[in-house]
Amino acid sequence: MVKPVLLIVGAIPVILAILIAIPMITKPDIPFSAVVPTDQIELEYTKHQLQKISFGVTEETQSQKTEILVIKDDGTVRYSVIDKGNPKPDQRSTIEEEKVRKLTALIKETGFMAIPSESFEIGEDIDAYKKSSLKVTLNGQTKQIHWPEQNATSQFIPPIITMVELELDQIISDIQNNN
Fold it and tell me: Under CATH, what is the fold of the domain 41-178?
């Protein structure tokens, strides 16, 4: 028979784990505790729609469409599109300070700046895919990461990258819907 003391000692880690997990489950937002007013951030997010073009013996990967989103720490946004080599006029906008703080917190709290800059292999049978790039300058420290969409590679793309990508894609969508 199990002694009551062993049950109590065994239950302590379980109780502590539950106390830690409950706030994380009930409030899945990124905490803003790491963001300080003096943080300086600039994001340059680029999305390429790429396609392999075959010339018989050789083949080349060409960009069909490129979208560039630049966000400054004061909330100013510049969105550029190059469609089949033809640049379209830049769209300028602003985002609220809360959104900039959320992006800064996402970068700082998730360890984005510590992600290794590895390259992702594209599958040989993939002819058309999306490739993204993000250059983050946070308080003078710069980090640049390139990644393809998950369907184009057999390698695992870290969820941190996907979270940041979703936030930036939402900003692009908002700009496109407002113009």
Answer: Mago nashi protein (3.30.1560)
3-state secondary structure of 123: coil
**CA atoms of 147 and 156, how far apart (whole Å):** 10
Residue 24 is predicted with a pLDDT of: 53
Token pair in block for residue 72: 């400054």
Helices and strands in the chain: count of H runs, count of E runs: 3, 7
C-alpha to C-alpha distances, 85 to 41, 63, 134, nearest whole angstrom: 30, 8, 21
Average the pLDDT over 32-57 and give the result: 81
Q: Which tens digit of pLDDT belongs to each residue from 46-91?
A: 999 988 887 778 888 888 899 999 999 899 999 999 998 899 999 9
Measure the CA dihedral 60/66/72/73, to 10°.
-80
Q: Average of pLDDT values for 2-14?
A: 69
pTM above 0.85, yes or no: no
